[in-house]
Amino acid sequence: MKKIVLAAFAAAIATPAAAAPGDTDTTQGTATATIVAPITITHDTGAALAFGTMTAGGGGTVTVTAAGAPTAGGDVTLLTGSTSSADSFTVTGSANRSFTIATAPGSVTSGTNSMAFTTAASGSTGTLSSTGSATFTVGGILTVGASQAAGAYTGSYDATVTYN
Question: Is the pTM of this model over 0.85?
């Protein structure tokens, strides 16, 4: 008889407990979202990537650093009193956010004549201040052809900023 009771007891212990029908539990998870101010870039009024006034000679380059310092290379000569400058932009958006800067090459034209240039920003990244603004400058290298035609050349290029 002891064996039957012990066998019945062992079988009861070995059988997993079954949950009662309808036994459930629920909890809530959390979700978050943050909206930041859109990043914007503005070309500063009166600013320009100015390569200056030059003679072409046999051709060469004019480099303007992002700080605005010009140098001529090859057979190009910058004229005395020539004014060169880096371009300037203001970036606005959410405070303390970092961003990347990309600038594209461009060209300047006078009638049917043109010259190509490359650009280089003062940095490849930036961080918006606690008030949500930052500035950067852009220099470049202008390629002047041999016996480039005289004229007042103008053009443009793209500058793009993107949140990191």
Answer: no
